[in-house]
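Anyone? Bumping this.
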Amino acid sequence: MEHPSRRDVLAGGAAVLTSFGWLRGARAQAAPASAGPADPKLIEDLVAANRILVDQGVVDGYGHVSVRHDKAADRYLMSRSVAPELVTAADIMEYDLDSVPVDSRGRAMYLERFIHGEIYRVRPDVQAVVHNHSPSVIPFGATGVPLRPLYHMSAFLWPGVPVFEIRNAGGPATDMLIRNAALGQTLARSLGASPVVLMRGHGAVAVGGSLPEGVFRAVYTEVNARLQAQAMALGGTVVYLDPEEAKRAQASVAGTIGRPWELWKKKALAR
Amino acid sequence: MEHPSRRDVLAGGAAVLTSFGWLRGARAQAAPASAGPADPKLIEDLVAANRILVDQGVVDGYGHVSVRHDKAADRYLMSRSVAPELVTAADIMEYDLDSVPVDSRGRAMYLERFIHGEIYRVRPDVQAVVHNHSPSVIPFGATGVPLRPLYHMSAFLWPGVPVFEIRNAGGPATDMLIRNAALGQTLARSLGASPVVLMRGHGAVAVGGSLPEGVFRAVYTEVNARLQAQAMALGGTVVYLDPEEAKRAQASVAGTIGRPWELWKKKALAR
Amino acid sequence: MEHPSRRDVLAGGAAVLTSFGWLRGARAQAAPASAGPADPKLIEDLVAANRILVDQGVVDGYGHVSVRHDKAADRYLMSRSVAPELVTAADIMEYDLDSVPVDSRGRAMYLERFIHGEIYRVRPDVQAVVHNHSPSVIPFGATGVPLRPLYHMSAFLWPGVPVFEIRNAGGPATDMLIRNAALGQTLARSLGASPVVLMRGHGAVAVGGSLPEGVFRAVYTEVNARLQAQAMALGGTVVYLDPEEAKRAQASVAGTIGRPWELWKKKALAR
Amino acid sequence: MEHPSRRDVLAGGAAVLTSFGWLRGARAQAAPASAGPADPKLIEDLVAANRILVDQGVVDGYGHVSVRHDKAADRYLMSRSVAPELVTAADIMEYDLDSVPVDSRGRAMYLERFIHGEIYRVRPDVQAVVHNHSPSVIPFGATGVPLRPLYHMSAFLWPGVPVFEIRNAGGPATDMLIRNAALGQTLARSLGASPVVLMRGHGAVAVGGSLPEGVFRAVYTEVNARLQAQAMALGGTVVYLDPEEAKRAQASVAGTIGRPWELWKKKALAR
């Protein structure tokens, strides 16, 4: 860039931000108390969610999904750091909202767990968080072309899909990863009240009021991105869902999520 | 939109339409008489049809296929509300043309069953109806770019493929779903004498003179959409089938549908 | 079209052409003599070829592949009319070059078998013929954009890929099918000395000096079409193989066809 | 081309180059000494790497991957000439950097093994080499549109991806193959210090400091190419990773390669 001194300043600012995050993490290193065993069905759904996201092409060897603990709003559950396809119930760990593990037992943690904790902190409505490198979505994050609901299944996109530009918070020299609470907080701010936020040069995060809804949204954001790109390429004017239609379609479709979830879960657990 | 008062009027009109549909449904709530057991082979074909449509990428966790009862023209058969991939013979329910179930036994019904009943009512030639969110087709419905037969397998598209715009019937504030007989009737009117109708912001419906033909048409509408988009993207003039060619090709190809059906059914029932 | 009387004339001409083809078929109806049993390995390769073409996405429920009989140049072998994926050794039938079966035993024949017989008749170098609805290739036939070799694996395309326009031979009102010897002859004339001919609004035919080579060419024509469309879409100038490079690459690659064939055949026969 | 005499000159020059390569090969024909048995785990990883590259759509019936011998920097290990999907431990052969086999036992060798030997010779940092016909990458090599990192997973592309034009070294009449040491050397010179080099009209080569890293890079170059083409097609400005971001992302992501490798290897060896 043309102004090295400005970069230095920004890098310095990023270092300061990072330090604050580290201090925050350091203060919280004393293991937080467990909220107790989660409902085994929730754990089972979380394991299934990992495999479903693989089956649906939303995650590959990377990506992670979490769910808020059913016994405590300030705890969430997520696998240790392993490819989603390999997650089993024994891999599920409990975290506080600073993303400090309750009982790590030396298991490696997802570097970007802060994505989850910081969203749970500011979004009491959110019960599940999916971080992915959803392929068809990445080009939208890289171009700023707005993702908009093309059909009723992705009507939940009607509020708009913000794009998180990590350079705004972390400066020009980050490694693109949400590696601490401070960066997690800026990402959560970008997400705002939306169901999805894109991460420029990285991927996306989808949230939901339940694990099935979070997974559903991650899947149908990917589908919408693919179909929207096709629609744009056909030429002519693309008609998206009208906001009034979209609000109602979202509400109606939300009531049907059990139908794909039943199928997806059955196949996921049959492996 | 710029005229809230107009929207209110339209919404009110939609509410009136909906009420009429509900009244219609209410009057028909007394369970209609069964036409008796359908041919077991027809049930088997219907179960297979569900899986075939999944295998061919035409339906996912959503979508449904029905067939007119072989014993009575005013009855049709369709699964209870479940993902197509999970449909078994035990799930098949019998409906009258108001889409009232003969023997629901408390089983959930597809919300949009009216798509089927209302088409059977006005299309005596139709023996099978497929409702789907056929992915490659959705961009055509969203842009109004006309689907036209690119090759002989989709020659049946030659009459033209209408696009159903739900706002014309239901106003600007529908939830995009064909949730009652009135909306089903407007959709059937859009379909007219065509083999396929697109639903803007939703998906499509394909019909056929038999279950294999209905499934065949759903599959090859999807293929045609995919290939037509590719042809348009190559640049240059796209040569579609001439209407004379298309009529004859449709007739000839119709005589060969047993060949893919045999393969598709064999694989579907082998799962 | 603007001149019905011209269409009538052309249709009449088509009818005459068809009649000649029928007469030709009628004269040949006396079953031709068999050339004796073909090499069982050739039959095995032919069965494998069918499945390979399915696995490679070149054929679906439609399409067919044949091989010239190893005992007689005026006989060829091809399955009865069934989806390629279902072909077994027991389905293989023997035909003369008029595409009359030696021993039909009432089995249904591929309507378009004339594609094969007429090519064997005029191309003594050809030992295998693949007819397909190769998806990525169809848009090229529909637009006339020339298929050209993008990389060494499809170097065999360097002579150019002709496009067969059935209206030139059969008039504006054909059903798009090569349903008799006369149409087969016009298609063979379009093919000329090329390895591949596209059929506008239909699909393609690939030929080879052996069954592996014919299958290889069908597969890599599909791949080339897909990649060429992507290259054209990237913008900028697309550099195709220079004719000198292409000739030599074709010769060198031809010597390596055993490598994919071994893999493809092993997987095909393991089903 | 317009100047046959110039072509003759170039062809002559290519012949001379080829002769030098042959002589080089001839001098080295006395079998080189073995470095002894390689670590069985390295062999196991090499077998897995072959299958992983197939699973990830980077290689098909063609392509090959090698790893530098763990006991000697002037030896490398690669399968005999067979489709990657069929490679087993018994197929692994040992080569010196002239790509002469230690103990060929009459087994056929990959014609283009020189790609590997010549890169190991000039890149002491490289421990693994992948040669492929990575489909989404080929259009970039054919158009010269520069591959650039669209997201953090392909950050390693930040130094730029050179394109090897074989006509610069071998003249206008090569068969596109790296069939001798001289051509291998020109390719290695094109690669320079980069992680990937595209081969116009052919495919690509990816290198890594370990076998998992080489495979990872081959996979994510393919993904990046696919997503970059989609981003370019969306219109608007495509934002690639800033070089500062890319360097840091590459370093951070490099530390996570074990996560997909664990998954990929487990599935590859479970076949």
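Late reply, but here is one note on the structure posted above: The interface with chain A takes residues 149-153, 155, 223, 226-228, 230-231, 233-242, 244-245, 248-249, 251-253, 256, 259-264, 266 of chain D (CB under 8 Å).
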